[in-house]
User: What shape does this take?
Amino acid sequence: MTTEEVPLAPPEEQFVTAQQQRHAATFGMWIFLATEVLFFGGLLVVYSAYRIWYPNDFAIGSRHLDIVLGTLNTAILLTSSFLMAGAITAARLLDRRTTCLLLFLTAGCGAAFLTVKGYEWHTAISNGFWPASGTQPHGVDLFYSLYFVMTGLHGLHLLIGISLLVATSIRFLRGVSFSPNQNQITLLGLYWHFVDIVWIFLFPLLYFIGRSS
Amino acid sequence: MITSAPPSPRERLQPSYLSDGTTLGSWLFTRDHKRIALLYLFSITTFFLVGGTAAILMRLELLSPTPYLVTSETYNRLFTLHGVIMVWFFLIPAIPNVFGNFLLPLMIGARDLAFPRLNLASWYIFMAGAALVLYSILEGGADTGWTFYTPYSSTYSNGYVVAMASGIFIAGFSTIITGLNFIVTIHTMRAPGLRWFRLPLFVWSLYSTSIIMVLATPVLAITLLLICLERLGGIPIFNPNFGGDPLLFQHLFWFYSHPAVYIMILPGMGVVSEIVTCFSRRRIFGYTFVAYSSLAIAFLGFLVWGHHMFVSGQSIYSGMIFSLLSFLVSIPSAVKVFNWTATFYQGRIRFDTPLLYILGFIGLFTIGGLTGLVLASLALDIHLHDTYFVIAHFHYIMVGGMVMAYFAALHFWWPKITGKIYPEWPARIAAVTIFIGFNLTFFPQFLLGYMGMPRRYPYYPPEFHFLNVCSTCGAAVLGLGYLLPALYLTYSLFFGPKASDNPWRATGLEWQTTSPPPTRNFLEIPVVTREAYDYDYIDSPLLADKEAHDD
Amino acid sequence: MNWLPFPPEASSYSGRVDTIFFSLLALCFVVALGVFGLILFFCVRYREGSSAPRSAKRPHSAPIEVTWMVIPMIIFLVVFVFAGKEYAYMYSPPSTGTEIDVVGKQWMWKMLHADGQREIDQLHIPINQDIIITLTSEDVIHSFYIPAFRIKHDAVPGSYSRFWFRAVKAGTYHIFCAQYCGMNHSQMIGEVVAMAPNDYAKWEEQGHPASDMVQSGETLFHQVGCSGCHAPTATIHAPLLEGLYGKPVALQDGTIVTADRQYLRDSILLPNKQIAAGFAPVMPTYQGQLTEEQVNELVAYIISMRNAQTPVEQRNTAP
Assistant: This one.
């Protein structure tokens, strides 16, 4: 599917061609993702420092996480990325209905992830792992501080992604001009894949400490 | 750099951006980068006054070795206020968000930035962050210092730390959006013929600044977020009583805050290049080296954060590495200063106000930079860290450098932005007053620092008294100096003569539009065929002949 | 340098620090004068309307650029080396000296001499002796600064910092807190009183501490239950402390650390941080139960056992 076949809307006033506008938008999204890498990166630095200091306590904390649910969540997110890629392809094929369906399904996977994550949080807290409760050794508290902050921020990003997916889908179903705006779906896809990749990092770092022993 | 002729008669018929819509709504919902620049100008001027008032109160208080004007508690909140407002709500946005926003599209021959709506959003986000910080100040403020060191800020302080940190966190998004916008614009929207190495050096400096904005600010965001979570949720992160490491905060904080100081100074350096060339009527000496030096500063600036922690307990070997890199990062700045100096050689120098400010910049920035070498020297920093020597060092760079560059930019582009000419002699007097007042204020602080006076001290031993009084007297002169532009610039808005398109006969595409420019900047996108700063061409008799014929 | 209002050069390295400073300052002065002089000269000679010759066309010169990058870098390297060596010297305490523990807290300095004398906001020391400071904080970060000695180090809660000085001039000098620590940060001022040996001996005598730090530490060791697990006769399997200080310790995760003061402190307050290989993580934490001074005393006691022999029977009965 080449771009020449797709009629593009006239570009916004500051751009000379629609091509230029699309290029700028995509470039902008990549830069935004770079900022997110630095954001989560700072958190990973804190994690690395404390994991080196408290290897035992981190292992204890990690073992109390449910690896079945974690793996399930990983599968859900990977599936959602697959569906998202499908949505992008459907958009390129100008198949409005399929695109919107796939966007909804992607959002649905995201919602499923958040539900499972919410359940995991609930379990952790009711088992006394909330860091401020002071019932655990220091290193375990630090592990769970990081666990809640890392998965919480990831979940927040996921929620934003879900909202954007649903909103975009509804807009297109309502008849917003589809073909000139399909770059938006590509950009959404970039964001969604990024959120997925963050989870791919978080999953082993949080769930797989000391499990081999 | 110039190619297209001065504005055509058709272009002159367009309404200027200032008169294109006069309702409040047309300003608050504008997408025009020039109007957004003025929104920012209004905001940062206000914040400069707020931060400046805090400084006045602090210097008045320091007239006496024991507090007489305000309590210790209040003094502590004042220096926090001063730092937070000046760093995040004045120095960081001043040149990029006022002059960058206004000039970048004009300088590259574009109609606007890549994302105008994001640009407007960035101003609203900035104001939201400022509102939160001002709220925290009105409620009593925080007393942690702008550096928020843990565990004082995360556990012990009784101030409004979360509100203030959240305000800064929000304002950080404005910085990120601005940087993103600038990078995309410079990459994708340059006019035909405008190769990278034909760009004005101001654009190079904005580009380098934007890279830092985009990469460093997110780290500040996560750091402040962690402090807020620790305070609000009791979640231990930096608390040593729970096994946390207070030094981890410092690493994260300074990983952002050191590059942040380059966010503050790089745009100012870009302004210097523009003005030095215009007022010596010469091409910049060593264009390529000056352009690359901006990138080098941006890159190396990320590698030196540990020089804020030489005495904090990091390993001696880390200290060695950071010290060496800190010496290295001064080289690109030195390259710029040497190139600016060489640009004066065989020029035709005119001492208008913008150049006076820039001469002040070069002098004061050089002193500030050289004293930075002193602080980079490990053994010396043991004695000087957290003393008034450091305060003098960074004020020489930030106030003597950056603020003077800001005023230079204000005066240089005032005719373009407002369409009016400011009165020259009051302006020159103000520039000299500011220079003198600045040195009287901050030079004594170098001495105080070596004598051992620590920072953030409302009480001090009597041997520091005399120099503190000198410094406060200087601050009075400085304050007067800052007042003058407020007066005569406002005067010029109402009573100043109209400006021509290019009153300085400067190169640069922005001078090819009317003063003030129309909303759409260019009716036709210009084509660039000449190198930057081609003053030989613009001053040549051939061009004068041609222009006489065109008229 | 006495005519300048700077602090006296009261420590053995103050003079060298000052020399580095004034040399660098002179260098900076020369550079600044050079640059300013050149600019001034150009501004006058090439002002608009002057008749100076103007013909130079080439606004760039790679050789010049490289020169003014390389020469400063070489000069900086020299400065870096001198200043770096001095830094390493100041922050590397000698192996023997008079040990003094300093604890900063909001808003005072507590000094603990080895002989058990305690001072608040004052530090009496003999001149011409190496004084080794072990510094920590009870609450927030402070910074222990003696301008006359040109020495400073942050007092970080949860960790020990070590540095040293030798006073060479008798006198009284300021101690400042140089890291903002709250309301009375600027009133956390003390003084170091450097005395000639005779005077110091007299001062030492008139204080009558009940016990020195090692003795206090030993008492505490039994009092708070350390000996319940760490004595040779204990039934619980716990690392032995005789001969421990300064030796390498194998940890459970395979790394090897040196049992320095920080290690001892962390073992008492954060026992799960570095678990010795072969031992279960069952030691309770003493966080919140001991003051910093008490931790210092326990550490002093364990250090005092550095040369003791590990009891033979304990080695054989270890499970």
